[in-house]
């Protein structure tokens, strides 16, 4: 099976520590973990997670473990789901300072090169958009 890498990035209007803290907090609406209808997240190196989301009219379960946690710059975890054909892929999220902002770059490697694997790009782009929206400043007209 041919594997591929998905890479997405987004600039977020907050410093890396604040963005990192939202990313890893399942209770925070800007966190990808918050989108789960069921979730167990043990945020620690070698900590396990189970994350279930509703998508396209059904539930999708995801499993993995945290490999590296380097606050405020990096989170890396394994990722297994039906869309990875049960293969253990790896998600690496980097939080790079850009003055008062943060460039968040997510690389998901080891994803099957098929329609479901390529679908991860849209999913991760959506999650980064939610994260950016969490910090967006909305001016009154």
Could you explain how this protein is built, in words?
The chain is α+β, with helices and mostly antiparallel strands and 141 residues long. The protein has a domain at 3-31 and 69-135: START domain (Alpha-D-Glucose-1,6-Bisphosphate, Chain A, domain 4, 2-Layer Sandwich), CATH 3.30.530.20. Helices cover 21% and strands 46% of the residues. The chain contains two helices and seven strands; from the N terminus they run βαββββββα. It has helices at 16-23, 115-135; strands at residues 3-12, 38-41, 48-55, 58-70, 74-81, 89-98, 101-112. It has a seven-stranded antiparallel sheet. The longest helix has 21 residues, at 115-135. The termini are far apart. The relative contact order is 0.26.
Characteristic key phrases:
alpha+beta, Alpha-D-Glucose-1,6-Bisphosphate, Chain A, domain 4, 2 helices
Q: Proportion of β residues?
A: over 45%
Class of the domain at 3-31 and 69-135, according to the CATH hierarchy?
Alpha Beta
Mean pLDDT: 94
Report the biggest beta sheet as strand number plus sense, adding barrel if it closes.
7 strands, antiparallel
CATH superfamily of the domain at 3-31 and 69-135: START domain
In the CATH hierarchy, what is the architecture of the domain at 3-31 and 69-135 at level 2?
Answer: 2-Layer Sandwich
Order of helices and strands: EHEEEEEEH
**Number of strand elements:** 7
Give the CA-based shape.
Answer: globular
Instruction: Look at the helices and sheets and give the structural class.
Output: alpha+beta
Count the DSSP helices. Answer: 2
Q: What is the strand arrangement across the widest sheet? A: 1-7-6-5-4-3-2
Low-confidence stretches: none
Q: Work out the radius of gyration.
A: 15 Å
C-alpha end-to-end distance: 53 Å
Helix content: 10-25%
Do you know the CATH topology of the domain at 3-31 and 69-135?
Alpha-D-Glucose-1,6-Bisphosphate, Chain A, domain 4
